[in-house]
Amino acid sequence: MFDIMFVIVPVFVTVIFVIVIGTFIVTAVRGVSEWSKNNASPRLTVDASVVTKRQHNTSHRTQHGHRHHHSYYYVTFQVDSGDRMELSVTGQEFGLIAEGDTGKLTFQGTRFLGFERNR
Question: Which one, out of 53, 67, 71, 96, has a CA that is 20 to 30 A from the CA of 106?
Fold first, then answer.
């Protein structure tokens, strides 16, 4: 019984370690790939309207028992062709943009660069 435990436990620990490291590597490669793709994309400024906004909040407890909160902000724009794109924005931009706004959207790939509202 104990002999099998000396085989199973190290294999189990190794598999978990490989999964964790593999997930880290895949996430890093995807991030670098998206960053590189955005940098290679042209900067475009197009007429757009704000369709909707959403906020995603996360929270976790630190090892010292404190809660850490983080908010992610997204705005969905619709361009003249009818295509829609959801872009991540800063909290400040999120607060300045309202649903129904129309104006000039500037972006590069999936990177939001700015939105100038029509007056």
Answer: 71
Residue pLDDT, tens place only, 37-52: 999 999 999 999 999 9
Q: Which residues are bridge partners to 38 per DSSP?
A: none
Pairing verdict, β 84-89 and 67-79: antiparallel
Nearest to 105 by CA among 114, 94, 95, 92: 114
Phi, psi dihedral angles at 57 (to 5 degrees): -110, 140
Q: What is the mean pLDDT of residues 71-99?
A: 96
Interatomic CA distance for residues 48 and 34, integer angstroms: 23
Cβ atoms of 24 and 71 within 8 Å: the answer is no
Cα separation of the two ends of the chain: 77
Question: Cα separations (Å) of 30 from 1, 44, 118?
Answer: 43, 23, 36
pTM over 0.85: no
